């Protein structure tokens, strides 16, 4: 079933996930919650050179934050950094090159980062991948799973000791409303069975990110974990991977700045941490992780099993 044939989800999207949905929600925003300096605080943002990742980097740079941009393409990353420095005057912006689909390199990057830097206050797992057809990485893992799930798990787990040593630590994961039509499935993590539908695989990964966030929040209570849906945003990734959707919805899509708003709010506001850790957000508000009357609920056992599978897989690729 295509994501966009789920009528309840699509109707919800038309009212809430669009530009108009953001404008409506923003009427209740308390703007002074973002009226602060984050000078001296350190942020790592994956996929920081375009779309909502770049918009979030720009917004946090304007507030004085030290930002580690983790990007796959060096030229695009350096170009984005130059834009951000020019617009904000903040030179504390550092580029790190990492392809999250290369699982061993994710470990190596995180371990090296911990040796080089003494603090990290906020990790924003924003980078994601939608594949048009199934492909595997050098380790034999399905590529979008490697980026969206295992890469996020390894990066987060490896950086937890550094986060825990830093004041007011936070981890934010950028999910998608597409996960609302997906029940957690742990029996086909590599998408080896059945027809490969890239958007549905992506939506399943986004459900796995929600479960991962909930579980990590339970085991690491001194870090504030959150996961968020940016809405339907006009980004190069959406245009390239979902051209029909992008074409039909173009006038209703959010700007990258609107899509990044809740990410920035979760990263810097004091108000965000007054909510319990491990929650799912849309437009600065905690929202349910399932549609009403949905069949998408999973058991605590299945959710714990996902984490143990990820832990086992992560250890397989850990450098010794």
TrEMBL record:
| Source organism, top-level taxon | Eukaryota
Q: Which Pfam families match?
A: adh_short
Q: Which PANTHER family match?
A: DEHYDROGENASE/REDUCTASE SDR FAMILY MEMBER 12, SHORT CHAIN DEHYDROGENASE_REDUCTASE
**Which InterPro entries does the entry link to?**
NAD(P)-bd_dom_sf, SDR_fam, SDR_member_12
Q: Lineage of the source organism?
A: Eukaryota, Metazoa, Chordata, Craniata, Vertebrata
* Source organism of this protein record: Kryptolebias marmoratus
Q: What is this protein called?
A: Dehydrogenase/reductase 12-like a
């Amino acid at each position: 079933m295509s994501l966009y044939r789920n009528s309840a989800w699509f109707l919800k999207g038309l009212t809430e996930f669009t530009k108009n949905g953001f404008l409506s929600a923003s009427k209740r925003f308390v703007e002074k919650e973002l009226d602060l300096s984050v000078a001296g605080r350190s942020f790592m943002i994956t996929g920081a050179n375009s779309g909502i990742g770049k918009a979030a980097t720009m917004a946090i740079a304007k507030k004085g934050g030290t930002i580690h941009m983790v990007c796959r393409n060096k030229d695009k990353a350096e170009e984005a950094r130059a834009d951000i420095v020019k617009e904000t005057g903040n030179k504390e912006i550092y580029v790190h090159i990492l392809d999250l689909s290369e699982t061993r390199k994710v470990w190596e990057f995180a371990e090296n980062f911990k040796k080089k830097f003494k603090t990290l206050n906020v990790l924003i797992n924003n980078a994601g991948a939608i594949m048009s057809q199934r492909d595997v990485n050098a380790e034999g893992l399905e590529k979008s799973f490697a980026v969206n799930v295992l890469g996020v798990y390894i990066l987060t787990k490896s950086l937890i000791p550094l986060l825990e040593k830093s004041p007011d630590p936070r981890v934010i994961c950028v999910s998608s409303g597409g996960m609302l039509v997906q029940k957690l499935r742990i029996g086909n993590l590599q998408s080896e069975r059945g027809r490969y539908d890239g958007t549905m695989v992506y939506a399943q990964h986004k459900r796995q990110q929600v479960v991962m966030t909930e579980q990590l929040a339970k085991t690491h209570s001194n870090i504030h974990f959150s996961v968020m849906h940016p809405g339907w945003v006009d980004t190069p990734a959406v245009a390239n991977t979902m051209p029909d959707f992008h074409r039909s919805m173009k006038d209703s899509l959010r700007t990258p700045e609107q899509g990044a708003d809740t990410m920035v709010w979760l990263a810097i506001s004091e108000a965000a941490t007054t909510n319990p850790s491990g929650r799912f957000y849309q437009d600065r508000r905690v929202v349910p992780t399932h549609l009403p009357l949905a069949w998408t609920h999973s058991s605590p056992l299945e959710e714990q099993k996902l984490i143990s599978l990820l832990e086992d897989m992560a250890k397989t690729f850990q450098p010794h």
